[in-house]
Amino acid sequence: MANENKLWKVCKYLLLLVALFVVFFPIYSVLIGAFKTQVEYYQSGLRLPHNWFDFSNFRKVFKVGKLGLGFKNISIILVASIAGNVVLGTMVAYALGRFDFKLKKPIIGMYLVAQIIPMITTQVATFSVIKFIGAYNHMSAPILLYLGADVLQIVIYLQFVNNIPRDLDESAMIEGASLFRIYRSIIFPLLAPATATLIILKTISIYNDFYTPYLYMPSPKLRVVSTAIYSFVGPNAAQLNVISAGILVIFIPTVIIFLVLQRYIFAGVTSGAVK
If exposure means fewest CB atoms within 10 Å of the residue's CB, which of 21, 154, 169, 194 is most exposed? Predict the structure, then answer.
């Protein structure tokens, strides 16, 4: 029995070490690659760079790759998309979670079915619709797609709404509150943990998305951070040292957002609401 316990501990720590390696090795390779020249990158392998104060790759990714423009465009898309997702998700979840009507179950079923349909299978029809309404090669194209093609926000909010006691709604109605006032003053504030979760998930998803901006916004003036990095990929080779610098730069905002919002994810939905 003692030998079995020792073997289990050894296996457990080995698995943890493997997991740590899988997580941190890409970060290490990007970090050291960002401070190497192109020749040094291909010749030195995984060795540390000769000069940690060589910021030429960072200057190049901003000057040539227009990463600053990419940050500006992705910020506009993120704010518009996430704000729309929060408003749309909370309102739809409030309607489905609080009111009974004939088509309630079919509508919920359609939202769930939409989650399991691969988006790539509908891209021909989606592209045709975007081009027909004149949104192609415009910033509104990815915003519309991020709002309508993903119903994750509705699924998340609906789970939270179902856990909010209806006693709060009834108490507000007795005080003369309208349905919209109940949504604005009671339901929406209590959905703060779900909103924080949604912001983190959607920000990472939209921020790292390459396919949608590359397909629907081919103009160089509409590049985002992902397509700005892709500009250093040539037909025969890629400037991996410059790409590493760009990845390191665009990695920082997601870490900050996660650190700021993570404490809200596990907060209680109705903590202290009902006494």
Answer: 21
